[in-house]
User: What shape does this take?
Amino acid sequence: MKKEIIMNILEFTQQFSSEEACKYHFKAHRDKQGIICAKCKCTKHYWISTKWMYECSSCKYRTSLKKGTILEHSKLPFYTWYLIFIFMSATKKGFSAKEVQRQIGMKRYEPVWRAMHKIREAMGVRDDRYKLADMLELDDGFFETSTPESTKKNLKRGRGSQKQTKVLVSAESTPLEDIKTGKKSTSCRYFKMKVSPSFEAKENDQIITALIKPNSVVMTDQSTSYINLSNYVEIHMSEKSSKEVTNTSLKWTHIAISNAKRNFLGVYHKINAKYLQNYLDEFAYKLNRRYFGDRLFDRLVLAISNPVLSSNG
Ligand SMILES: [Zn+2]
Assistant: This one.
């Protein structure tokens, strides 16, 4: 693991030795996706290298390199953004904003913290593009969070700002049977993790329909929170919660929940409930790309350089 990080950092410093190198790399990724004129929707543009701007071939409207992306309103240089990208994609575990600030030698914490949250949002937007399908596990986990000042007064005295936030977790999980031994196992592909603030059936219905395709077969425990599930998936199967179910039918969701909890506790200690979804987005984004290796960095830049995908960042 350590070696893998060092390799990435070495390659990074060779490839991105200057602000200009980062800008050219970002431009290459934007070019791949095409520029759409904000004024006339024309897709043909010329590059004005002296200004670092695209110019619409039809109405001459100019679009900057950062326009429409999460970098648009940021004063941070591309080089700083790129340093943050490498820190956020180099390891499975991730880094806290405090640690990244220290490593890249930034004076102020806030711009680093803000940039990292924008990147997490862009990761979430990217993963929201597709829904889970086929055989699915669906379960929920409690995450320890802290609560913003404004809502603290509603919590019991003595319990401080502690809070538990419920999260819905789903995983594509295909049952496999070894033909020779008859031993059963499951292989898993993509995950989704979404905060469900009230965890009422009605709220879960909305979240789940946005996560999964209607032709899915979904396994859950017998919680009443999933009572309406059969209305919008092909088959809903449920089993009473037990150790056996945890280790078989809901194996991957349980692994994802416990790994996420351990990761958050180790890296961030206590997460503000307001930002839990962002941390889950980063965790799920990397989990879904667990076999990408070194390509993760490039894929992250691709996601971030897409103005449509990062428009709510
Ligand atoms: Zn135009």
Residues 97 and 113 are 5 Å apart (CA to CA). The chain has a mean pLDDT of 89. Strands lie at 45-48, 53-56, 62-64, 135-146, 162-177, 184-195, 217-221, 235-239, 271-272. The first strand starts at residue 45 and ends at 48.
